[in-house]
Amino acid sequence: MITIKKITAQDTYPIRLEVLRKNIPLPFQFNGDLDDTTFHLGAFNNDKLISVSSYMKESNNLFNGSQYQLRGMATLVEYQGKGVGKLMLENAISIIEEKNIDFLWCNARISAVNFYEKLGFKTVGEIFQINYVGEHYAMVKKLKNR
Ligand SMILES: CC(C)(COP(=O)(O)OP(=O)(O)OC[C@H]1O[C@@H](n2cnc3c(N)ncnc32)[C@H](O)[C@@H]1OP(=O)(O)O)[C@@H](O)C(=O)NCCC(=O)NCCS
Hints:
Radius of gyration: 14 Å
Number of strands: 7
Bound molecules: coenzyme A
CATH topology: Aminopeptidase
CATH class: Alpha Beta
CATH architecture: 3-Layer(aba) Sandwich
């Protein structure tokens, strides 16, 4: 059974490293990881952590209003495509909506744009490069009642 729980920044690091930082010499610890307003979610298959994501009160000039940024979204390869990431992100959206935040945004790898679109995110602005990782789009989801 899959359950979604709040986890610590430290808990996210092994999956960030394995899924998002393999052969990529960028930090796996993010500014804001330990901020009071930040929270981290994990998806567990029974007791095994299989997917992680982090949510930070960080604003992007592209958007006007209160904002959270999604970072470090990653599901272990053998569990991808089974609905786990979607379940975790839906959970996060509910938590952020309760905080009366206007937008959730992220910098999405091109390969993940469809995943975010299925959850109601839209691409904004021009495609841009992040060193070592490749092309990205800023994507945003307007939150309920905002
Ligand atoms: C992108 C990622 C986080 C999605 O997590 P996941 O647990 O595999 O996603 P889910 O199984 O919940 O997918 C939900 C839906 O999106 C689709 N989807 C998932 N990943 C996708 C992708 N990369 N491209 C297109 N569609 C995708 C699924 O098929 C599913 O569609 P459905 O609802 O019609 O069945 C995961 O594949 C991953 O860790 N990828 C590598 C790291 C990465 O790119 N992270 C994002 C950085 S911005």
